[in-house]
Design brief:
mainly beta; Jelly Rolls; Immunoglobulin-like; 3 domains; seven-stranded antiparallel sheet; 41 strands; globular
């Protein structure tokens, strides 16, 4: 997490004076009375933005100009302050009314912020996949590709927000996500779901994850796998489908809008870059009940975001195979992607980078074949820096199964999300994205770090080390000791605690310099061999949410030849960071 925050800080601000468009909403329900623009000073200096201008950008070729708005007098922003422009009725905290001259239209449009002299400060475009007007000279990256609708649901108001307040990499697709709205205050206040996030979906049928996810239409819903509801037409539930339980057992979760169309869910967690996500996912082969131009498409992604409808990018030439899709995908980041048709069902590993059409297929198509690799399968993503490890099949929590790696993948401190989009003739033929045993956490590298100093026995200072790295799922990991008293006269012990080391406390009764670095919650005893070595096995479990946990260890070597009341020599401490 600290590395992510450091990188985010290093990347900001790119706006000339550190003043950015930090959050906005443009596509609300019915009357446009919930639209707003939030401006934020992410720089180190006080900035007077009085007289600055927000310009509307029209993305439809031949469309009418979208007007402009001049920021009023008194808009002096100290570092970390906001200027909110919005309807006074719904935003009583607004500093200035939005009015009707500047239009934030549905469809491809944008905003550009300049100072009074016309110097560009910041800009953002949305639905850029449908842009037909000339490309703005100031375009940042590929813009925001898809349509992010504002849904006026109490507790589920969403907006288009910078993933991290003020973060400006000059790429709209990297910087902005769909998230809980926070007009006039920090976007981080909307991130109420903590990592690691785990969910076995064993709550009662009908329970939802709306407290954990922002969603566009329908949030993840707990279902009995033996009776998954696939459609509600005209208010009448349609026949259900029956599926086996996942390896975790109990209930599962479905992620789609059963009435048809698309759907998206975005985890309400603080955006990071180094994600681990895994779950059991139900996979099936081709659907012979589909029409020839039917299809469905789902995505489970990290380090990114999506549009509200989960519109597919053209992975696997999907657009040519279905009748009703558009080219307005808003997917970004790294993702597992599934396309399902009448005669094919394929899984892909995709780097969507910051959006646009220049995605990279890292693996696939992986054909889903009945009786071979269908049914409940573990899918896992682990991204660290610009490296990726992904797994299909294998053991939950372990780096096994069919393994895929990639380097130089795109890097954004962004979100985790799920989408589903159908194009089917009969809604009863839909197969929702179905998950169980979901974990989203930080993908942390396994590491061993020494700390402090040791104190001698009659044969010298004992040495602590490790056999391999504390990688989750490593059954052979052990802490080792050397330069111990042979036979351990009478024994040596390993003490361990959760967390980092103590600063070093003199052990009463022991020789000076025998420092305690561990307040032990676990103690293991061993006898050194004739060469003065010993090993303390610490098999690492396959538990993804353990990633990032620190365990501090220290060896205490008893030596009756020492004259002290407590005759021990000590090693320094060794901190184990559990990781992938």
């Amino acid at each position: 997490m600290l590395a992510t925050l450091f990188l985010a800080t290093a990347l900001t601000p790119q706006a000339p004076q550190g003043v950015v468009i930090n959050e906005f909403a443009y596509d609300d329900t019915g009357t446009d009375d919930y639209e707003f623009v939030e401006i934020y000073n992410s720089g180190p200096n006080v900035v007077d933005i009085s007289g600055w201008i927000l310009w509307g950008e029209e993305g439809d070729s031949g469309g009418a100009p979208n007007g402009s708005l001049t920021i009023g007098p008194g808009a002096v922003l100290a570092p970390g302050q906001f200027w909110l422009i919005g309807d006074a009725t719904n935003f009583p905290q607004a500093n200035q009314p939005l009015g009707t001259v500047l239009r934030l239209e549905n469809g491809p449009d944008g905003l550009r912020l300049t100072d009074p002299a016309g110097v560009y400060q910041d800009g953002v475009v949305w639905e850029y996949a449908a842009w037909t007007a000339p490309v703005p000279t100031w375009l940042e990256g590929d813009g925001i590709g898809g349509d992010i609708q504002l849904h006026e649901n109490p507790g589920n108001f969403n907006s288009v927000s910078r993933a991290i307040d003020g973060m400006d990499t000059d790429s709209n697709g990297c910087d902005f996500i769909s998230a809980p709205w926070t007009p006039g205050t920090f976007n981080v206040t909307g991130y109420t779901t903590l990592l690691p996030y785990t969910n076995d979906f064993d709550d009662p049928v009908g329970s939802t994850v709306d407290a954990d996810f922002t969603f566009s239409f329908i949030t993840g819903t707990t279902q009995d796998p033996a009776a998954v509801l696939t459609a509600i037409i005209g208010g009448v539930p349609q026949p259900t489908q029956s599926f086996p339980p996942s390896p975790q057992g109990g209930n599962i979760s479905t992620w789609h809008d059963p009435t048809g169309g698309g759907d998206a869910n975005w985890l309400k967690s603080f955006p990071i870059a180094d994600y681990a996500m895994e779950a059991y996912v139900y996979l099936t082969g081709p659907n012979p009940n589909f029409a020839a131009t039917d299809g469905e498409h789902w995505v489970m992604g990290v380090r990114g975001s999506s549009d509200s409808f989960g519109e597919p990018a053209n992975v696997g030439n999907y657009h040519a195979a279905v009748a009703c899709t558009t080219n307005e995908s808003g997917h970004t980041g790294i993702a597992w992607v599934c396309n399902r048709h009448q005669t094919t069902a394929d899984l892909y590993l995709v780097d969507y980078n910051d959006g646009g059409g220049d995605f990279v297929v890292l693996a696939g198509p992986i054909a889903i074949q009945p009786g071979v690799n269908d049914g409940w399968q573990r899918l896992r993503l682990c991204v660290q820096g610009t490296d990726l490890v992904a797994n299909f099949g294998g053991t939950l929590g372990c780096d096994d199964g069919q393994r895929f790696t990639a380097s130089n993948v795109s890097y954004c401190a962004s979100g985790a999300y799920f989408t589903y989009r159908e194009c089917v003739t009969n809604n009863n033929d839909m197969l929702p994205l179905m998950l169980d045993a979901l974990t989203v956490t930080e993908c942390t590298a396994a590491a061993v770090t020494p700390f402090g100093t040791g104190s001698p026995t009659s044969v010298g200072i004992p040495v602590i080390g490790s056999m391999g790295l504390p990688t989750l799922g490593n059954p052979a990991f052990a802490v080792t000791g050397s330069n111990l008293v042979p036979g351990s006269n009478p024994f040596c012990g390993l003490v361990a605690q959760l967390g980092g080391p103590l600063p070093g406390i003199q052990i009463p009764g022991a020789q000076p310099g025998a420092f305690q670095y561990v307040n032990p919650s676990v103690a293991l005893v061993a006898f050194a061999n004739a060469s003065g070595t010993a090993a303390f096995p610490l098999a690492m479990p396959c538990v993804t949410e353990f990633a990032g946990i620190e365990i501090t260890t220290q060896i205490i070597d008893f030596d009756l030849a020492l004259p002290n009341a407590i005759p021990i020599g000590t090693t320094n401490a060794l901190t184990l960071q559990l990781g992938f």
